[in-house]
Structures are given as structure tokens and as C-alpha cells.
Design goal:
Elements: E1 4-5, E2 8-9, H1 14-17, H2 19-24, E3 31-37, H3 44-63, E4 79-85, H4 90-102, E5 107-110, H5 114-130, E6 137-140, E7 157-159, H6 164-175, E8 183-189, H7 192-208, E9 213-220, H8 229-238, E10 242-245, H9 250-262, E11 267-270, H10 278-282, E12 290-294, H11 303-315, H12 326-342, H13 347-354, E13 358-361, E14 364-369, E15 374-376, E16 379-386, E17 401-409, H14 411-414
Parallel strand pairs: 3-4, 3-5, 5-6, 6-7, 8-9, 8-10, 10-11, 11-12
Antiparallel strand pairs: 1-2, 12-16, 13-14, 14-15, 16-17
């Protein structure tokens, strides 16, 4: 069922391949969602992991009869998720966007690179102004550079992940209580998001832990470092008790592997230390030392949360496929809800409903803030431990290691101010 169009890899069409949808028999014309992400290159694993999450969410909507619209708008219609490979390049992402629009997509999802998200926001703003009959809405699941809902905020862009400043504030709730830390090493990827993480780390350390000395402040090329041993050696030599990093994908996995090799015994305060190979790479050396912040984790207490995770594992039983994100599920639920409330696929009408979306799933509830289109939701901070330890029922990717929640932060406490000056269509 795969096809090639303009050298863009397309997905298996959900409307044809989802077993749950076959039972639902949704007859209306499909509503196309284009996922523009790295499906090849060093971050292909992250793209495929995102696709599984969104695909599962689309299956769930279609299994209950699709998106329900009035007969004048085509009646009940299934969602279709197509994937476009941006090859890790902004220009490729813009080409993919043009192809997706020509293919009939009016909803775009992306998130694994903030620089790419910024390029898509600019392109969509221009496109929507030029072609109001083919307007596009951009739903962002992971691009967390704060600028995207501040200076670069757009009526057509909605972010469902907590941005970097929100995540850093959550991590700082734990760091400020960890009196064993007297020095930290800041390390990140050299692009907008990585820069934002280190910048905010310095600001919040000065405010929350002015006694902590920063002994390293370093950026490295995104996705191009194959050997992190030189970085790990510098970290160990600095005498730091902890590393603060926003690294993700292979840039995180290779970093923690190298740190283990050189014998670094400090803590890692991470945004993404809980998935995609990191726990297995760290092994026993990470027990009680690797800390991660997230919107949700499998070991969040509660029967609703556990049931949600168990249903994902039933759908994707391979341990290697264990990379589930609640926010991606809430994104698709919010989109389906907003289309139904708008009773139309008109982008202005759907965006007006997305601005006030409130969604719940698996015990997690969140709402979109209309002022800047930043989703507001609880956050959790967790520490790595062995599966079976108190609070660690589930491991990550069959590694035998999971994350025990040590801090839960309400949506109201996680909220941060915004400088957005939203321009809405007339």
C-alpha cells in the first residue's frame, strides 16, 4: 500500500489497513493528516515511534465511527494518516508540506525538530494568506522551543507538548531539593531547542540554586556526532555532579553510553532520558541517577493510566515499539473533537474550536490556552529504577529498567507566561 509521490514516502493508509476501522465501516471521504518527520537518517527511529502513536490514535477515532460531521459536510468521515519523510532537512520539510497540501491534507503534524517547526509555521502562515480556500492547521506534538508560542506564535499553530521552559521548571523542582549537587555541566544540541534548554537552565539555576556552579556549557552538532567519548571525558574531568541536557534520539543514547564508558557517576537531568534506547544504554549505572521530565509516563499512578498503557502494549507488543506518548493521543482527540464542534473542515472554524479544546484520556486531562495555543497539562518528574522496585511496574523497551514518579506538577503550576501577540484572521 506504500506509494511514492514526488519522492516522498507515504504511509499505509489508516482507512484501509486498521483492523478496528474495518469493523467501523466509515463511509465518508477521508480527512487527511500529513505527518512530516524524519523517516530516514539518524533520527528515523523517532519518526517511526511517533507514527505508531498517532496511528493508534487515528485507529481509535475511526473505530468509534470516525469524525462525525453533518451530512452537508460529508457525514461521518475517517481520519487518514500519511507520512512524509523530511530527511532531517528543513527544505525537504517544506517540499513535503507542498506535496501534502496538493494531496489534500489540511492538517499537518510534526514535532521532532523545533527549527523545522519554525520553518513550517512561516510557510503555513504564507500559504494560508495566499490560498484561503486551502488553509492548513499545524499541530505540534514535540517541538518545544518556547519561541514557537511566544514571538513566533501563529493562529494556525497549536503545541501539545510542554515547552522547554515549562519542562525545565519541572526539573528544577527536583534539582532545588537535591542538596548533593554543587556543580552541573550543561550540554545540548546546537539548534534552537538545544540552545533554549541551556539558556533557560542558566536562568532557572540562578533563581532556584544560585549556589550551584556551572562547570561546563557546551553545544554540539545536531545528529552528526558519532562518538561522544570526548564530551563524556570533559564532563567527568569537570567534576560535575550532574548533567542537564535536552538531547534526544541517538544524540542522547550515544551520550549516556559514552558517560557510562568513562565512569561518570553523576546524575543526568534530562527531557528525554526515559525512552528510545537510553535506559538500556545506561544500565545499572543509571539507577537512581537518571531523571526525566514528561507530560506522562507509564508508571504514573492510577488505574486509568495503567489501563491506557496496557492497551498500547496490546496494540504494539514488541518491546522495541514501547514509546507511547499521552500528548499525541490527546492531540488527535482534540482535533477530532474540534472538527465535530466546528461542524465543518473550514480551517478558521476548526482553529476556533481548537483554541478552547479540553480533552481527557487515561486519567490525563489538558486544555489549550487560546492566548498562545500552548497546551496546558500536568507534568511529572521521574527517576530511573529497576523494574519491580516500588513504583516501577513497567519497564522501558524490555530493558528491565523503568521510571518511578517522584514529583507530580499540576497544570496550573506548570503554566508559564507568554509574550504571544496573536493575530487572528478577520
Amino acid at each position: 500500500m506504500f506509494k511514492f509521490r514526488r519522492q516522498v514516502l507515504k504511509s499505509l493508509v489508516a482507512v484501509l489497513s486498521a483492523p478496528a476501522l474495518a469493523r467501523a465501516q466509515v463511509a465518508g471521504a477521508p480527512i487527511r493528516i500529513a505527518m512530516i518527520e524524519s523517516m530516514s537518517g539518524p533520527f528515523a527511529n523517532t519518526g517511526e515511534a511517533v507514527f505508531r502513536n498517532l496511528y493508534w490514535a487515528v485507529e481509535r477515532v475511526n473505530a468509534r465511527g470516525g469524525v462525525k460531521l453533518p451530512a452537508s459536510s460529508g457525514g461521518s468521515r475517517p481520519l487518514v494518516l500519511d507520512k512524509y519523510d523530511n530527511k532531517g532537512q528543513n527544505e525537504e520539510a517544506l517540499s513535503a508540506l507542498r506535496a501534502a497540501i496538493d494531496d489534500g491534507a489540511r492538517f499537518v503534524v510534526q514535532g521532532n525538530n523545533s527549527a523545522t517547526a519554525a520553518a513550517l509555521i512561516d510557510a503555513i502562515n504564507k500559504h494560508n494568506e495566499r490560498e484561503p480556500a486551502r488553509r492548513v492547521i499545524f499541530l505540534n506534538y514535540s517541538a518545544t522551543d518556547p519561541i514557537l508560542t511566544n514571538e513566533k506564535c501563529s493562529y494556525w499553530h497549536f503545541r501539545f507538548d510542554a515547552h522547554a521552559d515549562m519542562r525545565m521548571a519541572a526539573l528544577m523542582e527536583v534539582i532545588k531539593e537535591d542538596q548533593a549537587i554543587s556543580s552541573v555541566y550543561l550540554l545540548g544540541q546546537d539548534y534552537s531547542f538545544g540552545q533554549a534548554v541551556l539558556r533557560e537552565a542558566k536562568v532557572q539555576l540562578a533563581a532556584q540554586r544560585p549556589d550551584v556552579k556551572i562547570v561546563g556549557d557546551e553545544l554540539h552538532p545536531l545528529g552528526r556526532v558519532k562518538d561522544f567519548l570526548p564530551y563524556a571525558t570533559k564532563i567527568k574531568a569537570s567534576g560535575a555532579q550532574a548533567v542537564i541536557t535536552g538531547n534526544w534520539g541517538n544524540d542522547l543514547t550515544l551520550l549516556v553510553k559514552a558517560a557510562k564508558e568513562v565512569g561518570f557517576e553523576g546524575k543526568f537531568y534530562t527531557f528525554y532520558g526515559n525512552a528510545l534506547g537510553a535506559p538500556a544504554a545506561i544500565g545499572d549505572a543509571g539507577l537512581g541517577k537518571v531523571v526525566a521530565v514528561a507530560d506522562w509516563l507509564p508508571n504514573v499512578p492510577g488505574t486509568a493510566s495503567e489501563g491506557f498503557y496496557q492497551s498500547f502494549r496490546q496494540r504494539f507488543p514488541k518491546p522495541a515499539d514501547d514509546y507511547v506518548h499521552m500528548r499525541m493521543q490527546l492531540l488527535i482527540e482534540a482535533l477530532a473533537q474540534s472538527i465535530e464542534k466546528a461542524a465543518s473542515l473550514d480551517a478558521v472554524a476548526v482553529a476556533a474550536q481548537l483554541e478552547r479544546a479540553q480533552v481527557s484520556l487515561g486519567g490525563q486531562t489538558g486544555h489549550m490556552r487560546a492566548a498562545d495555543h500552548q497546551f496546558q497539562q500536568p507534568l511529572v518528574v521521574a527517576v530511573m529504577d529497576r523494574q519491580g522496585a516500588p513504583g516501577v511496574k513497567f519497564d522501558v523497551e524490555g530493558s528491565g529498567y523503568g521510571f518511578r514518579v517522584i514529583k507530580q506538577i499540576s497544570a496550573s503550576r506548570a503554566e508559564q507566561p507568554s509574550t504571544c501577540k496573536m493575530v487572528r484572521p478577520a
